[in-house]
Specification:
Layout (H helix, E strand, L loop, with lengths): L7 E7 L2 E7 L4 E6 L18 H14 L17 H10 L8 E2 H7 L6 H9 L12 E2 L12 H16 L2
Parallel strand pairs: 4-5
Antiparallel strand pairs: 1-2, 2-3
Length: 168
């Protein structure tokens, strides 16, 4: 992943461990659990807790964790990925809270029905966890397969969303 210019970052506590969020001047570019797979080295990025995009993302994620929000309206920038990855990440945004889809469904959504493995690779490199809901993608028979933030977090996120959707 290429983040240019250098973003600024902020820390966020979640029920499933610490997260780092990073933003360019006007959009969120990274949101991930500390230590997750494929994470960029964020420690050299300047800290900017008062950055408006980071504050907005933190507020919305805290509301999500509290069961008060299932959708996000934080501006995002996905330029760190290839054109293929960006198509996959955009398709993830179409999955409704509380629903799951398969990697096969995702590959069909982007018009490449045979590209399930490549789709899985792009999903694993999603730069904006939770807001771009890669945790909603499961195996063809509903199996809870990989998640860059750890399978236990994927399960917890899906359970949270099912609980939230059952109250609507």
């Amino acid at each position: 992943m290429n983040f240019s210019p250098t973003p600024v970052r902020s820390a966020l506590s979640s029920p499933w461990g610490p997260m780092t969020l990073a933003a360019s001047e006007d959009a969120l570019v990274w949101a991930g659990f500390d230590g997750q797979a494929h994470a960029p080295e964020t420690r050299q990025w300047p800290v900017a807790h008062s950055h408006p995009v980071l504050q907005r993302a933190c507020d919305q994620l805290q509301a999500y964790f509290a069961g008060e929000r299932t959708r996000f309206d934080v501006p995002i920038n996905l330029d760190c990925g290839s054109a293929f990855q960006q198509r996959v990440w955009q398709a993830l945004l179409t999955i409704a809270p509380g629903q799951t889809v398969s990697y096969g469904w995702m590959s069909q959504q982007i018009g490449q029905p045979g590209a399930m493995r490549a789709v899985g690779g792009a999903i694993g490199r999603n730069p904006i966890s939770i807001l771009i809901p890669c945790h909603r993608v499961v195996g063809s028979r509903g199996a809870l397969t990989g998640y860059a933030g750890g399978l236990n977090r994927k399960i917890a996120l899906l359970e949270l969303e099912l609980e939230l959707e059952s109250h609507d």
